[in-house]
Amino acid sequence: LQEFQIKMAGMGISLNLPWSISSVSSITSSLSSLYCLFTITVYVVITINKFATNSLKNHAEVEASNFLLYMLVLSCGFLIYLLAYLIKPPRSHSNKKSHGSAFLRQGAAVFGVGTGFYFLISLASHIINIACVGPIRTINSFLAVIFTILQMMTIILYPRLNLDQGFGIPHFGLMHIVSTNLILWIKTVIKESILEFHEAIEKEDEEGEAHGSSDHGNLNATASSCKPVAEEDDYMYSIVRGSSPILFAFIIEFVLIGATVFYNMWHHVKPYNIAGTKHLEKLPEKPNFKAVIAKTDWSHSVYGVGIGFVLVLLNITALSIFFGFASEDNVIDEYIEKVTRCITNSYGIIATVIGLVQIQKLTEKADPEDSSVDGFLLNLGGSFSYLYMCFTITVGVFTTDLEDIPGSLHIINAVIDIAQITSQIVLIKLLLNRVIKSEEDEHPGRQVTAFLVLLNVTLWLVDTFELQKSQASLVESEFYGPVTWVWLQRLTLPLAIFFRFHSTVVLIDCWKNSYRLEQKVEDAD
Questions:
Q1: Single pTM value for the model
Q2: Long-range CB contacts (within 8 A, 24+) of 302-310
C-alpha cells in the first residue's frame, strides 16, 4: 500500500499512516456524508417532536434553536478558517472549472442579499423584543447574517477552490455547511408552512363563526402569545411579516445554491499536498467577469430570446393581474394562471422536440465531464413537480364541475406540465455531453436552448411569487381542505421551484459550453 503522508504546514510535524491515499479519502468522505445525514435527521426529529407536543403550534415554539445554534457556530467558524487559512497554497489549488457557473454565482449574490436582509431585519426585531423572543433565537439571527455573508464571499470569490483533504477537516467542514444550508431550507419551509397554516385556521374559524361554530379558537388564542408585543410595539415585525412572502423564496434559493456549490467543492476534495507533488504557489483564481463576457459567444440566439421574451411578458402580465386583483371570493386568478401556464408549457414542449431533433447534429464529447450531480438535482426537482401535478390531476378528475374552472383544465394543465418537464430533462442530459464539431457549425439547437432559458426563468418567477400563494389554488384548497393543502404545497413546491431555477442554470451552461470546441470547454467559466 502506498504510504499516506500528511505534513502539517509550518509545524515541522510529519504523520505517516500505513493506509493508501484512496482509503483515507474514502473513509473521511463517507463519514462526513453520514454526518450530514445524521445532523439533518436530528434536526427534523427535534422539530417534529416539538410540534407534536406543543399546543401553541407556532414557529417560535417548535424551532430547534439550540441545535441550530450549534450548526451556525460551526459553519461560520469553518468558513472563517477556510477564507483565512485553507485557501492559501499548498492547502488548496484551482479546479479546471468552477463549482458553480457564472449565472449560479450571480444568483448567489442576488438571493444572498435578500437572505441577508431578511435575517438582518429579523435580528433587529428580535433585539427589540428579546424578552419575548429569547437570547438564543436572537444570537441565531446574528449568526445567520454572518453565515450568509461568508457563504456569499466564498461562492462568488472562490468558485474554483479545491481543498487538500488534510486530516479530514475539509470533508467534514464542507459537508457541515451543506447540512446547515439544508437545515435552513427545512426551517424556512416549516416557518412559511406554519404561517400559512394559521391563516388557513383563521379562515376556517371565520367561516365557522358565520355558521355559528368554531373549532380552533383556543389554538389561535395561544398561538399568538408574543403577538401583542410584536405588532403593537415593534414596527420591525410588520416589515418582517410583510416581506416574508418574497424573501422566503430568496432564502430557499440561496441555501439550495449554497448546498449545491459546497457539495461540488466537497466532491473535489482530494490529497493534493503529497510529498513530491509540484504545485504553483499562488492563491486560487478569482473569477474575471469582464473576461467571461468578452469570450462568450452570443450568436445564434436572437430568435430564441425574442420569442422567449414574449412568454416572459405574457406571464408577467398574468402575475400583475394576480397581485392587482387577487380575491378569495372567485377563482378567476387561478383560471388565468392555469391557462397561461398551459400556453407557456405547450411552447416549451414544441421547442424541446425541435431541440431534440436539431442537437443530433452535434458530436458527443470524447471526454465527457461528470454531470451526475446536475442530473440528480434535475431528477429530484422533476419528481416533486410530478407529485404536485398529480395532486392537480386528482382535483380535475373528481371535481369536474367545481366553481368556475372545469376539471379538464386542471388535467390538461398538469399533463402538459409533466410532458414539458420530461422532455426538457431528456434534452438537457443530451446537451451536457455534446459539443460542436467546428466553429463554422450553425450551432443546431442553440435558439431552442436560449428560449428554454427564458421559459424556465418565467416559470420560476410564477412558481415563486404566485403559485405558492393560497389565492392561486383556491379549487385545490377547497378540495383537499385549507390546512391539508398548505402542507401538501410546502412538501412539494420548494423542490418544484428549485427545479425551474436549476434548469435555468444548467441550460445556460449548455448554451455556453455545448457550442464550443471541446478543448475550449475546459477553460470555460
A1: 0.79
A2: 302/447, 303/447, 304/446, 304/447, 304/448, 304/449, 304/450, 304/451, 304/452, 304/454, 305/450, 305/451, 305/454, 307/347, 307/451, 308/450, 308/451, 308/452, 308/453, 308/454, 308/455, 308/458, 309/454
